[in-house]
Design a protein that fits this description.
The structure is a homodimer. Chain A is mainly α. Chain A has 5 helices and 2 strands; from the N terminus they run αββαααα. Chains A, B: Its main location: membrane.
Chain lengths: ~160, ~160
Amino acid sequence: MAKAASRLFSLLLRLLAAAATLSATIIMATSHDSTTIFGVTLDAKFQYTPSFKFFVVANAIGCGYSLVVLFVPPRSSLSRLVIVPDVMVALLLTAAVAAAGALAHLGKRGNSHAGWLPTCGQIPSFCHHVMGALICAFVGAAAYLFLLLDTIHTVLSPLLPSSPS
Amino acid sequence: MAKAASRLFSLLLRLLAAAATLSATIIMATSHDSTTIFGVTLDAKFQYTPSFKFFVVANAIGCGYSLVVLFVPPRSSLSRLVIVPDVMVALLLTAAVAAAGALAHLGKRGNSHAGWLPTCGQIPSFCHHVMGALICAFVGAAAYLFLLLDTIHTVLSPLLPSSPS
């Protein structure tokens, strides 16, 4: 009973991760805005920023992996091994959120010491898209963190009462 | 014999992670450079960039944790539970490297679409420090990835031959 509940919990987390990373990919990939200041056109697309490109690729990988792993038979040895790619994907999504978040924060606040002006005032639509994508990707990364904790709990609980050398 | 080798491997990885994160913290925290262009002073310190502040805090936490966990008795139940903070620290260090790496790349290359000029030409000493800190922190994060894979291998290998439901 507890095992079935844990399996359902992990299935729901994978579906949540797939939905969140898919949304993050689509929202970031469709973000676009442009404005003209003093005759200079400021064009904003995710392709212009390496961190946002990495974000899209990482979330697409996260989404694809989350869907593929749903087809792994739950009682097979393979199902125990998915913890290894789970760790990789959790790290990948975390890196994507952190890198894109750092650039999004810079776009919003700027950095006067480096002479980088904030751009969100000029391209609000792009910034809103990025913010939405970041929230979705954060949910995806958090789902993977909980998946890892659930797997660790499942694997460790039978081992903890005993104290083997 | 194999268990002792695995324990030695994990001890060495923790020492490597502690040394790498300590170096990253010190190198980033001591980075400073300034230059004057057209009468305007461009001052560079890690405190001026939120991602670099996060980097220093995350690496300091990673270093402190790596040292504290060395004192956990190797045969205790507690030693099995350290995988949970290990996962957290691996994610934290990855996020720190990604966020600081995104800003370091921007400093080196700039982003013409956003009107952000590269700054490394003016403050090369600061950029070299940041690059050194990033390499150290990457080694620390990689050490934690290998630690996780080693723990997973140790915990999973006795379970894999059997096929419990």
